[in-house]
Automatic annotation (TrEMBL):
It comes from Drosophila hydei. It is found in: Mitochondrion. Belongs to the CMC family. Pfam families: Cmc1. The keyword tRNA processing does not apply. PANTHER family: COX ASSEMBLY MITOCHONDRIAL PROTEIN, COX ASSEMBLY MITOCHONDRIAL PROTEIN HOMOLOG. It comes from the Eukaryota. One of its GO terms (cellular component) is mitochondrion. Its main location: mitochondrion. Transmembrane segments: none annotated. This is COX assembly mitochondrial protein. Keywords: Disulfide bond, Mitochondrion. Residues 1-27 are annotated as: Disordered.
Amino acid sequence: MSLAQQEPAAINPRNPHGLGDPNDTTLRKVEREVLIPKIMRDRARSELCPKEVADFEECCKASSIFMVATCRKQNSALMDCLSRWYKNEAFKEECKAIYLQERAEYRSTGIPKKNRVEKI
């Protein structure tokens, strides 16, 4: 038989698109050390420390090349806020749950988050 005449492989219900089991909650090293911290960083900057981020950005824009010396206070305030959230275990678990939900959706649909469109 040629390749065109072979029957299609049966779809594994635990791995519908060949991307892994959507219900699997184990994490690879890159997910633990890179992807989940990226979600933590993005959420902390946009949702939890927006005032500190805005203050630091404004200072940097105003002082251009001298920002290293002139924006120390704003930078330390931003780092304090971000590190407080990075060390918060409840926040880390929340971001882990968000990541696992996004990964499960990708594995079950085969569509990456950036290409998914919410239907109203």
